[in-house]
Amino acid sequence: MKGRAFDMKKRKQKGIVAALGGTLAASAAVLGAGDFFYRLCLTQTVDKTKIFSAPHNRPSDDVPPSTVNEDMVWLSRQETKERTIFSEDGLCLRGILLPNPAGGPWAILCHGYTGHAEEMADFAREFYKRGYQVLMPDARGHGKSEGDYIGMGWPDRRDIVCWARHLADKERAENIVILGISMGGAMVMMASGEKLPLQVRAIVEDCGYTSAWDEFHYQLKMLYHLPSFPLLNMMDMFARKRAGYGLKEASALKQVAKCKIPMMFIHGKKDSMVPYEMLRPLYEAATCPKELFVAEQAGHGESRQAEPEEYWKRVFAFLGKYLDVC
C-alpha cells in the first residue's frame, strides 16, 4: 500500500511539474509573440512587407496612381531649408521648410506610417501653388528624426505642438494650418486636443484611425486571424515599457472631443487599411467647428487621387474660412 501511495504521489508531482512547465512555455510563447508584434508594428527594424502586401492594405486598382515620385522631383528643385528642433523629451527632430515668395500662411504637413517628410511632396506642391509656405516634419523614429520607435501619433502630438510654436516664434507665422494623412491624420487629431499656439487656425485629417489599439486590433484580425487577447495586451505592455505609451492611451477619439480648432475630416469609403467605419465616431466626437468629406471610390489615402478637383476645392475652401488674412 505504501508503495502504491508513493507511486500516486510521484505521478501527481510529475503532473504538476508538467502542467507548470506547460504554463511557463505558453507564457513564454505569448511574451515572445508580444515582443514580435511590438517590433513588427512599432519599430523600423522589422520588414513590413507582410503588412503592406496584404490584400486589404494594398492600393486600389480603381484609382489613378499617386504622383508622389514626380512631385518629389519637383520638391528637390525647390529652395528648401532643413530645420531641426528638440522634442520635449530630448529627441532631435528634422523638418523641411519650403518658404514661399508670396509669404502666405504656413501649412504643417504630416506623413503616414513608416514614411518620411519628402513623401508629402504632392501635398506641398498643391499648398505652395496656392501661396502657402510649407513645413514637412519627419515624425520621431522616421526619416532623419531621432527615435527608436513609431509613436502612432501619441508622443508625436506634442512634437506637432513644438513645430507649431517654432513657426510662430522663429518664422513669425501668424496663420498656421495642419494636415496629416493616415498615421499623420491620427497625429493631427491627437495634437488637436493639446494647447496649440493661437496661430493654428484649422486642421485637416485624412483617413486617421480612432486609436492605435483599434487599428492594431483590426490588423491583427485581418493579417493573422487572431483575437486581440492576449497578444495585443502583451504588445501594449512592451509599448509602455519601451516607448512610454499605451495603445489605448493613443486615442484620437478622446483628443478630438477636446478640440476647439476647426477640423475637416476626410476618408475614402473603400478604405480597408484604416476602416471607413472609424470615421463616424471620430466626426461625432468632435465638438469643434467641423466639416466632412467622403470620397466614395477611394481606398486608404486615395481621396485626393480619386476626386482631385473636389478634394482640393473642399480643403482650401475650408481652410480659407478660418485664416486671418486681409
Task: Lay out the secondary structure.
Elements: H1 2-42, H2 49-53, H3 68-76, E1 81-86, E2 92-98, E3 106-110, H4 121-129, E4 133-137, H5 154-170, E5 176-181, H6 183-192, E6 200-206, H7 212-224, H8 231-242, H9 252-256, E7 263-268, H10 279-285, E8 290-295, H11 303-306, H12 308-320
Parallel strand pairs: 3-4, 3-5, 5-6, 6-7, 7-8
Antiparallel strand pairs: 1-2, 2-4
Protein model, in words:
This protein is 44% helix and 15% strand. By secondary structure, the protein is of the alpha/beta class. It has one domain: Alpha/Beta hydrolase fold, catalytic domain (Rossmann fold), CATH 3.40.50. Strand 3, helix 4 and strand 4 (133-137) form a beta-alpha-beta unit. Residues 15-22 have low confidence and may be disordered.
What are its keywords?
Rossmann fold, 326 residues, globular, 12 helices, 44% helix, 15% strand, 8-stranded mixed beta sheet, single chain, alpha/beta
